[in-house]
Specification:
The structure holds two protein chains of two kinds.
Chain A lengths: L1 H17 L12 E7 L5 H15 L4 E7 L4 H11 L6 E4 L4 H13 L4 E5 L9 E5 L1 H20 L4 E7 L5 H14 L5 E8 L4 H14 L5 E4 L2 H13 L7 E6 L7 H6 L5 E4 L4 H13 L8 E4 L3 E2 L4 H8 L2
Parallel strand pairs in A: 1-2, 1-3, 3-4, 4-5, 5-11, 6-7, 6-8, 8-9, 9-10
Antiparallel strand pairs in A: 10-12
Helix pairs in contact in A: 3-4, 5-6, 7-8
Chain B lengths: L1 H27 L13 H26 L7 H17 L7 H30 L3 H20 L4 E2 L6 H9 L2 H21 L1 H11 L1 H6 L4 H27 L1 E2 L7 H11 L11 H20 L4 H31 L1
The chains are: A alpha/beta, B mainly alpha.
């Protein structure tokens, strides 16, 4: 029994130390914003959380709680189910997967909670509004950039491309691949000579690229589905002294020293494409839902991307570093 | 007599497996425009050595743990903790020391943190008598959480400039250094296991714990040291990982523990403890590295690669077992 008591005391102390304060303050009119994040442990999503916390922190009448689904759909569903009885004034969901999250977001809507669906849509429109990001358009922009750059470099649209893919089957991977190929396949002299999968990770990007460099004597472009993989590929090429023979293109364009924009400024990447953090738009719409009783949001807002090259990198770095 | 011959035969069989995979990889290797086999190019061979070094260093410690009939699932998380620690100390800390001293302190701190994590594993396992699988499963989760909390889920980036962190990454990622560290550690651990009292105790505990207790061996202390060393090596791998990838990533090293365990068991070390060697682990590590390289040079689809590896792991261990039963029949006759 003493052992149990001791364990309980330790656990209690630990919880008290770790958990963020979630009790309601006595003052009324404090709106609770709940964000169901699908996975904190990705740099893009960590940046989303940071930006959201910053935006919410600017208003005294807003309070934020973030749950982390840890890339596990059933965990995220359970977390939303726990949030619903707490009656948040605004619920933002970044769904881990489309289909399984549809029903629980319907429950939140039925409970009268304004619900914002972020970046990935769900099967039924169980949301107040949907903030969409367009990976297909980003893929197309990247493809077009590669074509233009090759034309400038070689005088014609020809060249050899290595593509480094994100985790297979994920929407971002499929559309960043598909969009680019839509453009590239119009030019028969542009060939994708090697496709490798690096699961979004810098170290895997580096490892795959080392092997590719051995097998491919001639490479003009490396197109990676996110910036860390492009940086990893650059590290591999640099090690073999071949980084000047090719240019590197990434996607995401996060701010901060670890983000892709900094890598464009450092001359590592030729370009990267901004994948919107989306939480700023969500709060812009969300705050209006909270404060303007008559406000009817549109059912869907699609956010554009932006190309970041050395020409605008410094300016975008300022804008997107929090 | 067979008692002496058996390990020799066993080693021969493992080496044979390695030879087969080398021949296969050479035969299937794509060629350069000049007609050279890419697989056998010096650059590619040293690439393989460097690529296996992280898992290789971890599998040395894992060999000790498995020899005691234990397991350590926390090494992947420890690698992440070590690589984020070293990266954070190099980028976020300005001690005003010369660059070299700064780098050494950062590395020492990362190794210390890792060793402490391992010592805790060993302490809990030997004091509370909870199974190593459970304890290290828990620390795998907890250490990952710690690494993520320390970094706030973000990658700690080592830039491309001229500062102390970039200098660390450039130096510590050199091929010769990475492979050299692996080679030296392998030699140290091979000698430790075969030529020292500590090594014999490690094997004795795994072979027959009860007998080891009756023989008065310091089981508790040995166990704590084994887990401490295992985590320390994961820490070394973490420092190399940070340098090679220009970042401290709190999500690095996921499932590395399984790769390390695979290398150890392919090398003929028994999960039941007591039997195995560092040489075997080296063979297992190289075997997996060459196999991976062979498949990737041929641009084999990554999902097929996983399926193929699954078959080969089971086949390799099965061959090892066939050898053991063959030997035991020899002895009984």
């Amino acid at each position: 029994m003493t052992r149990k008591t001791a364990a309980a005391v330790v656990a209690g102390a630990f919880l008290a130390g770790c958990s963020k304060k979630t009790q309601d303050t006595a003052a009324a009119k404090v709106h609770l914003v709940a964000f169901s994040q699908c996975n904190n442990a990705e740099p893009y999503r960590a940046a989303q959380n940071d930006l959201l916390a910053r935006i919410v922190g600017q208003s005294k009448d807003l309070r934020l709680t973030i749950t982390d689904g840890q890339q596990d759909t059933s965990k995220q569903i359970a977390q939303i189910e726990t949030l619903i009885p707490q009656k948040p004034d605004l619920l933002i969901v970044a769904p881990n997967e489309r289909a399984p999250l549809t029903a629980v977001m319907g429950k939140a809507m039925a409970a009268g909670i304004p619900t914002i669906c972020l970046e990935r849509d769900i099967v039924e429109p169980n949301y107040t509004t949907y903030i969409a990001c367009d990976n297909l358009a980003i893929g197309r922009m990247a493809g077009q950039f590669i074509v233009d750059r090759l034309k400038a470099k070689k005088g014609a649209a020809k060249g050899k491309i290595v593509e480094i893919k994100g985790l297979l089957g994920v929407e971002g991977q499929i559309n960043r691949h598909g969009g680019a190929h839509e453009v590239l396949k119009q030019y028969p002299d542009i060939k994708v000579v090697h496709e490798a999968v690096a699961d979004w990770l810098q170290n895997k990007g580096r490892e795959r690229m080392l092997e590719i460099l051995r097998a491919q004597p001639e490479i003009d472009v490396v197109y990676a589905h996110n910036d860390p993989m492009a940086v990893g590929a650059y590290l591999a090429a640099k090690e073999l002294g071949r980084e000047r023979q090719m240019f590197f293109v990434g996607v995401d364009a996060l701010g901060g020293p670890a983000g892709g924009i900094r890598k464009v400024m450092d001359g590592v990447l030729a370009a990267t494409f901004y994948y919107p953090l989306a939480v700023d738009k969500a709060m812009e719409v969300g705050v209006r839902i909270l404060r303007e009783p008559g406000f009817k949001p549109e059912k869907k807002y699609t956010l554009g991307s932006e190309m970041i090259t050395p020409a605008n990198a410094a300016q975008m770095y300022q804008k997107l570093t929090f | 007599m067979s008692g002496r011959l058996a390990p020799a035969i066993g080693r021969l069989q493992s080496v044979l497996g390695l030879v087969i995979i080398i021949v296969l990889a050479s035969a299937l290797s794509p060629r350069t425009p000049g007609g050279e086999l890419i697989f056998l190019q010096l650059g590619n061979v040293t690439d393989i050595l460097r690529q296996v070094s992280e898992i290789g260093v971890m599998s040395l410690g894992m060999t000790l743990v498995i020899l005691t009939a234990g397991i350590d699932l926390s090494v992947g998380s420890t690698l992440a903790l070590s690589s984020t620690t070293v990266a954070m100390l190099l980028t976020g800390w300005r001690p005003g020391l010369p660059a070299e001293a700064h780098i050494w302190i950062a590395i020492a701190a990362a190794l210390l943190v890792s060793a402490v994590a391992g010592a805790l594993n060993g302490l809990v396992i030997s004091t509370l008598r909870i199974q190593p699988f459970v304890v290290t499963l828990a620390s795998m989760i907890g250490i990952r959480g710690l690494a993520r909390r320390l970094t706030d889920n973000t990658n700690v980036d080592i830039g491309f400039g001229q500062d102390v962190s970039a200098r660390f990454a450039d130096t510590a990622s050199r091929k010769l250094l990475v492979v050299g560290v692996f080679a030296i550690l392998a030699a140290i651990f091979a000698i430790m296991l075969t030529r020292t009292v500590f090594g014999r105790r490690v094997k004795a505990i795994g072979d027959n714990e009860r007998a080891a207790i009756f023989a008065g061996l310091p089981i508790r202390r040995t166990r704590i040291w084994v887990y401490t060393l295992c985590a320390l090596l994961a820490g070394v791998a973490g420092v190399i990982h940070a340098a090679q990838n220009h970042q401290g990533n709190p999500n690095a090293g996921v499932s590395y523990e399984l790769d390390a365990i695979a290398a150890v068991v392919i090398g003929g070390t028994s999960l039941a403890g007591g039997q195995g060697s560092i040489a075997g682990t080296l063979i297992g590590t190289l075997f997996m590295g060459i196999l991976t390289n062979m498949l990737r040079l041929n641009n084999v689809d990554s999902n097929s690669e996983l399926m193929l590896k699954a078959v080969i792991i089971v086949a390799a261990v099965w061959i090892q077992q066939a050898r053991v039963s063959l030997f035991s029949r020899e002895r009984s006759s």
